[in-house]
Specification:
The complex is a heterodimer. Chain A has 10 helices and 5 strands. By secondary structure, chain A is of the alpha+beta class. The longest helix of chain A is centred in the middle third of the chain and has 26 residues. In chain B, strand 1, helix 1 and strand 2 form a beta-alpha-beta unit. Chain B is built from 10 helices and 4 strands, in the order E-H-E-H-E-E-H-H-H-H-H-H-H-H. The radius of gyration of chain B is 18 Å and the shape is globular. By secondary structure, chain B is of the alpha+beta class. The chains are: A alpha+beta, B alpha+beta. Chains A and B meet through strand 5, helix 3 and helix 4 of A and strand 4, helix 3 and helix 4 of B.
Chain lengths: ~250, ~250
């Protein structure tokens, strides 16, 4: 059995109306990436919330049999999985030809560069973020926070090369790499609050700090990246469930 | 229609390693697209100054230099080649959904299949049996996609009538299956259990450009035996002997 609480986004002017569904949960950065990408392309969608803990929602298992993970994009009776694959699909499927609303940059070398850094983000951030969130040893926590800060440090430098002096990794507008990292800002802010650590330190990472504020204020992003308190509520509920359930 | 001018060989330089399947992906892709390039053999254990300069984050191979600018990660390089030379034979399909499908299974190849195959090589006993089982599970998924109702149903290659992006990604690496079968004495690609995957691999390895790219099996066997020997405590000398012989390829 699955619950499908559809959440429709507000119809936009000039919006593309097709049957587009996203299987996901609003707190998950990988899902947020897909929603931002759809907003950038002005594509209307329905977010279908699914059960990701066992027993997983039937629709999730059917549409992503290999990984059984979110996000999944459902379009024209087909399912597309993996956030990086989905965002590129969205960019290519809803391409207006002139490249004006392009998520990936136009230049081949710039495209390779943002793909590299997006892969770096997925390689270096999720594991320590999760370990830090759910771990309890103080020593280990310091080490994990250090790993996250180191990754953000490299991204601070990458911002210079990718952004070319403009406000976003994508230049004048939000692009692929902005989405890849920006979708994780809620996670980062929540961790800073919950663990009393500085990760996105304004003094050490001034460019990223400025970028984060601009990113979160963007029309296509507003309301999609939950703030620290929303994550706190979710974590608290998850912890309550874990302590209430006897260990397996 | 725009004609792209001939590419000077000095425009493209590939830093790679002779036994590295990710290097082979790029070599094969360059060959298929008819792009001339210079090649520099690297020792993965002793990165050159050039490698450290161009890939400071990971210090790994392959690295493609285009007019001195580095492009990293084999799958990103393959995309770069199509983006830069769209009038040369395209590696990726043109339809967005087909591209998404190829990218998904490419991710699967590196995220699930390759680590499982590597685990077969680096383990023994129960651990190895579990690793072999994992490889079979992964091959089953690919076998299914090549069958009726699958994403690649009825195709000779994942790319269709000709090899493409996903063939390159899966193929450059799948030759280790036969090598490990012999060195580890395990059965990985049983033609009865995986008839379609077996047929695809045979057809892939039969392609002229593939034969020109992938090292001879005896060299790969020698290399694998030397690495295995080293892992089991045979010492660095055994590995060095195997590596030196192979590097004079």
């Amino acid at each position: 059995m699955y619950s499908a609480t559809g959440i429709n986004c507000t119809p936009m002017a000039g919006a593309v109306v097709e049957d587009v569904k996203v299987l996901g949960l609003p707190l998950i950065p990988f899902v947020i990436r897909v929603l931002i990408a759809l907003r950038l392309k002005r594509v209307e969608y329905e977010l279908v919330e699914v059960q990701i803990a066992e027993p997983k929602s039937e629709i999730l298992v059917k549409s992503n049999p290999v990984y059984k993970k979110i996000p999944v994009l459902l379009h024209r009776g087909k399912s597309i999985c993996e956030s990086a694959v989905i965002v590129q699909y969205i960019d290519e499927e809803w391409s207006d030809g002139s490249g004006s609303s392009s998520i990936l940059p136009a230049d081949p070398f710039d495209r390779a560069l943002v793909r590299f850094w997006a892969a770096y983000i997925d390689d270096k951030l999720p594991a320590p973020v999760r370990a830090l969130r759910w771990g309890t040893e103080a020593e280990k926590a310091a080490e994990l926070a250090g790993q996250i800060r180191q990754a953000l440090g490299l991204l601070e430098e990458a911002f210079v090369e990718c952004g070319k002096g403009k406000g976003f990794f994508g230049g004048d507008a939000v692009g692929y790499l902005d989405i890849a990292l920006g979708s994780c800002l809620g996670w980062i802010r929540a961790l800073e609050k919950a663990k009393s650590v500085k990760l996105l330190d304004a003094e050490k990472l001034p460019r990223l700090t400025g970028w984060a504020e601009r990113f979160l204020a963007e029309e296509s992003v507003k309301g999609l990246v939950p703030d620290a308190d929303e994550y706190q509520k979710f974590y608290a509920a998850a912890e309550a469930r874990t302590s209430a359930t006897p260990a397996a | 229609m725009d004609q792209q001018p001939p590419i000077p060989p000095s425009d493209l330089k590939l830093l790679g390693s002779w036994a590295d399947s990710h290097t082979h992906r790029v070599q094969l892709a360059l060959k298929l697209k008819g792009l001339p390039f210079q090649y520099q053999e690297e020792d993965p254990l002793r990165p050159s100054a050039a490698l450290l300069l161009h890939n400071p984050v990971y210090e790994n191979l392959p690295v493609l230099l285009h007019r001195g600018c580095p492009v990293l990660h084999s799958t990103i390089i393959l995309h770069f080649l199509d983006d830069t030379w769209p009038l040369h034979r395209l590696l990726l399909p043109s339809d967005p959904f087909d591209r998404a499908t190829a990218r998904f299974w490419s991710h699967f190849a590196d995220d699930k299949l390759a680590p499982a195959v590597a685990a077969v090589f680096s383990s023994a006993g129960d651990g190895q049996r579990a690793a072999v089982d994992q490889v079979h599970q992964n091959l089953k998924l690919l076998e299914r996609e090549l069958g009726d109702g699958g994403a690649f149903a009825g195709r000779r290659f994942f790319g269709g009538d000709e090899i493409g992006f996903l063939d390159i990604v899966l193929g450059c690496g799948s030759y280790w299956l036969a090598v490990f079968e012999e060195v580890m004495e395990v059965k990985l690609v049983d033609p009865e259990a995986f008839p379609r995957f077996h047929a695809w691999l045979r057809d892939f390895e039969d392609q002229t450009e593939v034969k020109e790219t992938i090292p001879a099996i005896d060299k790969l066997l020698e290399y694998a035996r030397a690495v295995r020997q080293m892992m089991l405590g045979g010492g660095a000398a055994a590995a060095a002997a195997g590596g030196d012989n192979a590097a004079t390829n």
